[in-house]
């Protein structure tokens, strides 16, 4: 994965906008028009993600597959580090074509790790993307505490696969990006 990409896996969306109801059973409920909460299971690392995302920008549906990557930079290599113009907590990114992950992914958010926890033998990384939250839960060997440190900034990169391509991908072919 390299130093800049700290996590990459393909996930299948299991639940969308489900919350616990009064009787304890999950019910479909959406509080915001443009924001959805997904629950997805990874294919390779036995990892689960709960993620708030803008569903108008990236519409996702139950059963669809998508690639989720976490990166320390939008650039693909370390040679471009420091090209961000930063003032305090605000950074301006002007990529050159072909140099950034923006060319490879459909949806990108910048966030900060605010909690790292361990529960029932699993590691959980909590990241806030300007109020949109993510909890990534998996094996401690996959989500290492020395890789995911509280206060670190990470980019979330999502690449949606078309349903037909994702189904073909489960038969051994590489899924293709939806456009």
From TrEMBL:
Output the InterPro entries linked to this UniProt entry: NA-bd_OB-fold, RPABC3
Q: Does the keyword Heme apply?
A: no
Any Gene Ontology biological process: DNA-templated transcription
User: GO molecular function, one example?
Assistant: DNA-directed RNA polymerase activity
Q: Which Gene3D superfamilies did the record assign?
A: Nucleic acid-binding proteins
Q: What Pfam families does the annotation carry?
A: RNA_pol_Rpb8
Keywords of the record, alphabetical order, are: Nucleus
List the GO cellular component terms: RNA polymerase I complex; RNA polymerase II, core complex; RNA polymerase III complex
Q: Where in the cell is it found?
A: Nucleus
> What is the similarity comment for this entry?
Belongs to the eukaryotic RPB8 RNA polymerase subunit family.
Name the UniProt record assigns to this protein: DNA-directed RNA polymerases I, II, and III subunit RPABC3
Q: Which organism is it from?
A: Rhodosorus marinus
